[in-house]
Write a structure and sequence with these properties.
alpha/beta; ion channel; 19% strand; single chain; 6-stranded parallel sheet; 624 residues; Lipoprotein; transmembrane; NAD(P)-bd_dom_sf; 40% helix; RCK_N
């Protein structure tokens, strides 16, 4: 074993203290300054006793030496022997080096501290905040909606943790979201997949945690791992609820198992497919869902109304002047969306309503007038088999066909227009639907014209998920322009429903006058934000998006009231009630391509007069 000498040991010890950073350097400089001043003062007492006595003794000389180290100009008035002046010069020159070094150390330490802060590695100290784990384009929608939701709050905080540069994240949020009002957005650099990095965002004091799917292949793997980390974390008694979305339905079961009972897992793939299919049958559905899910228009509220206890749900539908009931929340927490009309509201139960704001819900002092003579008693709508063209093919197309088969009338047909035939989909035998294939490049005008589009009632344009989202939207836009121009030339109308990746491209695509645009990524982001703000809405939305429960429907207005008749909206509500449905609004066909509402009017006042034509729709919550 090699033994180190005393000098070597001291050198190793000194180097170790220097490695401790700015505080250690400041300590050594202070010690050197104290040593210099003490030595010079002692030598002054021994070698220049006369000047020392003249200047007030050793204490005064000590104080003057301190001043000389800080201000070299202090030496200008010194008088005395050469020895005394030499000692004062030594302490002044030493002070210059020591003070300069101190300034350099402080500057370097301050720069290092600022650099570390900009790296986003400091711990967030907050309470009642919402944590967003992960980074994708969804983060801009989430942050914007959270800012809108908390606009009336005194102060709110959103903390974003992602494996990206903190300054870059802040710049992108500032550019894409803009002013967040009273909501403070804090970004931290770290991986949500690392337990140590999760400690940066004060999860224990958060109100809710949102797990976003990252960009790239197999995003659900990262989501499931984050859910595992959160579920196995040692939480305090009051833990935040977790909201996450998985992109593939096959991973939902694994995600729920990993998340545990405190997390809400959304099947993004299933919702996207459902929106496409339902919008194909009733255009405008995605617009209605967007209005219900964002914080800019109408939202879903759960409200206690003790004055309505003991009344049947059918009576409650007409009890509000502002606010559209869609269901009940039982005292035990059970949710009933559009229950039977004779369901009684018991004490402790709450009403689920669509309203612009919780404060704007208003009970009617007197029931609004109902124009009973304008109510259509027997709808004459006849559902017949139809032909649908599906332009393009992606990972959701198989499920779109399966769901179309469930809703289609027997004898209906779907033709797939894509560059390559989907062999597996064509080989499946379906109950109500016949699936055919035509070779087509979706952006080719010649290929589209060759398919005799006039024979189709509906066209679905699927987004190309093999291309970048922006480029896929550009291709979709070209296809839509061709389809609409062909329709104008043929004079035979058909509805067009399409997928878009970016909601910003929706307004650009309005020139195509497509009947509906399904922006599934935005819908999922809005849904997650709603659940982060109020987890009790999970069962409501689960029922609305479940095929076996009550769903949002846009049905012909002529099935409810006489076309062209001026009636109160209470008349529409009453007509829907007689059919076991809850009416929440209507859509005007003439305004279907006019942003931002695209003809959708939700929660009109019951006494408001409306005139619905044959091409308009009534928006209802119904089981079929």
């Amino acid at each position: 074993m090699v033994r180190l000498g005393v000098r070597r040991r001291l050198r190793v010890w000194f180097d170790g203290t220097m490695d401790r950073g700015t505080p250690a350097l400041i300590g050594w400089l202070g010690l050197a300054s104290l040593l210099l001043i003490t030595v010079v003062t002692g030598l002054s007492v021994l070698l220049a006793a006369t000047e020392t006595s003249r200047d007030g003794g050793w204490a005064s000389v000590l104080w003057r030496s301190v001043l000389r180290t800080l201000d070299p100009g202090t030496m200008g008035a010194d008088e005395g022997s050469p020895v005394y002046l030499a000692l004062m010069l030594v302490v002044t020159i030493g002070g210059i080096f020591l003070v300069s070094s101190l300034i350099g150390v402080l500057t370097t330490g301050l720069n290092d501290a600022i650099t570390n802060l900009r790296k986003g590695r400091s711990q967030v100290i907050a309470q009642g905040h919402i944590v967003v784990l992960g980074w994708s384009d969804q983060v801009f929608t989430v942050v914007g909606e959270l800012a809108a939701a908390n606009r009336g709050s005194r102060r709110s905080t959103v903390v974003v943790l992602a494996d990206r540069d903190k300054v870059e994240m802040e710049d992108q949020i500032r550019a894409r979201v803009g002013d967040t009002g009273r909501t403070r957005v804090v970004c931290r650099s770290g991986s949500p997949l690392k337990r140590s990095d999760l400690d940066l965002v004060s999860l224990d004091t958060a109100r809710a945690v949102m797990v976003l799917s990252p960009a790239g292949d197999d995003p659900d793997i990262d989501v499931i791992k984050v859910l595992l980390l959160l579920n196995n974390r040692p939480w305090p008694s009051a833990r935040p609820h977790v909201v996450a979305a998985v992109q593939e339905s096959a991973n939902v079961a694994a995600a729920k198992l990993a998340a545990g009972r405190h997390a809400l897992v959304i099947d993004a793939d299933d919702i996207a497919v459902r929106m496409v299919v339902q919008s194909h049958r009733q255009s405008g559905l995605s617009t209605v869902c967007t209005d219900l899910l964002d914080f800019a228009g109408n939202e879903i509220y759960i409200r206690a109304e003790p004055s309505l206890a003991g009344r049947a749900y059918g009576d409650i539908l007409g009890a509000f002047e502002a606010g559209a009931p869609i269901g009940l929340r039982r005292a035990d927490g059970a949710i009933a969306v559009n229950p039977p009309m004779d369901t009684v509201l018991a004490e402790g139960d709450e009403v689920i309503l669509v309203a612009e704001d919780d404060l704007l819900i208003e009970l009617a002092a007197n029931p609004a007038q109902v124009h009973a003579d304008a109510i259509v008693l027997v709808p004459d709508t006849k559902v017949a088999p139809d032909r649908t063209l599906m332009v393009g093919w992606n990972s959701r197309a198989d499920r779109v066909l399966d769901l179309l088969d469930r809703f289609a009338e027997p004898g209906s047909a779907v033709d797939v227009a894509a560059p390559n035939p989907p062999e597996d989909a064509l080989a499946v035998s379906r109950e109500n639907l016949t699936v055919g294939y035509q070779r087509c490049q979706p952006t080719s005008r010649r290929d589209l014209e060759r398919m005799e589009l006039g024979g189709y009632q509906h066209i679905i344009v699927l987004s190309d998920d093999s291309a970048e989202p922006d480029h896929a939207d550009d291709r979709t836009l070209v296809t839509l322009l061709h389809l609409r121009d062909i329709e104008v030339n043929l004079g035979e109308p058909y509805s067009i429903v399409t997928e878009m990746n970016d909601d910003g491209n929706r307004e650009v695509a309005q020139v195509t006058k497509a009947d509906d645009f399904v922006v599934s990524a935005r819908l999922i982001s809005l849904l997650m934000t709603q659940l982060a703000e109020n987890r009790h809405l999970y069962e409501v939305f689960a029922d609305l998006f479940d095929a076996s429960g009550a769903e949002i429907h846009l049905k012909p207005a002529g099935d409810y009231v006489q076309p062209g008749a001026e009636v109160t909206f209470a008349t529409v509500v009453e007509s829907a009630r007689r059919r076991g449905e809850s009416a929440i609004g209507y859509r005007r066909r003439d305004d279907a391509d006019q942003p931002p509402f695209y003809g959708v009017v939700l929660n009109p006042r019951r006494s408001a007069l409306v005139r619905l034509d044959a091409g308009d729709s009534v928006i209802v919550i119904a089981t079929d």
